[in-house]
Amino acid sequence: MRKMKVILNPVSGGGLSAKVWKKVEPVLIEKGIPYSYEATTKEKAAKDIAKEAVKQGYHWIVGIGGDGTFSNIINGLIENGKIFHKDVIFSPIPAGRGNDFIKTVKVPKNPIKALEQALNGKERNIDLIDVTYTKVDQSQGKYLCLNLADFGMGGEVVYRVNKSKLGRFIGGKAVFLLYTVVCLFSYTNKKITLTLSKFEKITNLCRLIVCANGEFAGGGMWFAPKAKLDDGKMDLLAIQNVSVFETLRKFGNLYRGKLSDDAKVISKQITELTAESDEDVFIDVDGENMGKLPAKFKVLPKVLPIKC
């Protein structure tokens, strides 16, 4: 059996992850599964712990947290587009606000059931999205997206959600919905140029652009019902120049997975995307603010081994 490293974000889900660990640890002890445990700190991110763990011979990385924690961990497991070590595998145990990635991989929200599934589940390889973005100082940054990246109004929504303490009281789905509605009345649509290939370019006022690897985001919003984690493609959804009230009317379709059917939504499956704008358009990757445009999004097929 691979040596197991458990990585915990103590602030995920408003402190829920610590409670989840108290339930998970006794099961590992009872089953006699050897493990090492480490929590993230301000000085040491999950990706740093993951990378260090692999160098120390821990090849089974178990993450306890939300989408942001899982995403940060896998950024420590991949180097130059390849897995850091051929024997490494990743397993997620949910303890976040939105818990969207686990919906696509069908991991139970119950931590004990999630652990059992990680211990007994099949191994498979999934895609990631390589994001190259622009930093505040205009230099380039890189980050790997596990679940979903978006830019436009979504960047402001995520900023407010991450600053809010409401999630611990009203739940992840409700807090995302709340700030989405708030931002509807404060965000101005931006003129954005999307290059899908050298033969296809789109320039339009846009409210939100989504590059989806997984199906869900925003605490249960069903952005990409056709998305598959291992098909070598990402699902593009470009919500064009819609008004506040038009957007509000689309919420029902979004939660039912029908947004791509809308006439004002461009929906395609692609492998690469370049996005540019003369305005400040901020990017969200797996629930974390990650620079601004110009940016490039590229699928890395079946690069991450998971077991769940």
Automatic annotation (TrEMBL):
Pfam families linked to this entry: DAGK_cat (PF00781), YegS_C (PF19279)
Gene3D superfamilies per record: 2.60.200.40, Probable inorganic polyphosphate/atp-NAD kinase, domain 1
Keyword vocabulary terms for this entry: ATP-binding, Kinase, Lipid biosynthesis, Lipid metabolism, Magnesium, Membrane, Metal-binding, Nucleotide-binding, Phospholipid biosynthesis, Phospholipid metabolism, Transferase, Transmembrane, Transmembrane helix
Keyword Cell inner membrane: no
Superkingdom of source: Bacteria
Cofactor: Mg(2+)
GO biological process: phospholipid biosynthetic process
Designated name of the protein: Diacylglycerol kinase family lipid kinase
Originating organism: Leptospira kemamanensis
